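Incident log, structure service

09:12 report received: a user says their structure output differs between two submissions of the same chain.
09:20 pulled the input from the user's history:
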Amino acid sequence: MAAALPGLALALLCLLQAGAQVPVQPDLDTGKLPGVPVQNQFAGMWHVTAIASNCSVFLKMKDGMKSSMAIISFMPEGDLAIKLVWPLLDKCQKFDLLFQQSGQAGHYVGAQEKRDLHVMDTDYSHYAVLHEAQHSETEPSTALQLLTREQDVSPQLLQKFKELIPTMGLTEDMLAILPKSADQCTRDIS
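09:34 re-ran on a clean worker, output below:
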């Protein structure tokens, strides 16, 4: 299992083929403005409740994965930071990710790897859809992630997410609807 952990990080962060245009949330509110109500901010705690990806590592592991927790925050210079806690069989695995501003609101680039992250859609208080593209020479990949503020996901929201999958060059057999995870990892998110 320990050998799979670096692959898990890759699987969680796979993205779309180069050259395609990925839509972004218009005027993404990062919550940096004074007086912006919390329910209108993208930052905060989210649950990763569904993922569709063509990443080979993800496809091998998807049936055993559970919902993870993510805390999204923005650095003073506008970069996006994500703290992920992923429940594994015997422990909670933490990942700290940093994405730099690309110059377009809602589009970020991986600080260490060749990755693009797009915030495609969000209503801020219930869901967000993220698109990630990994531009690897050995295995370029795409991932679409559904984040929700609660672990429960409505059938309507899940249907909306499923409708996006083919538009990103993915198929429904690449989809994992992640079951709820126990709260054993909540203390590890801070």
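09:41 both user submissions now match this output. Likely a transient worker issue. Closing.
09:42 reviewer note: Residues 110 and 149 are 24 Å apart (CA to CA). Confidence is low (pLDDT under 50) at residues 1-19.
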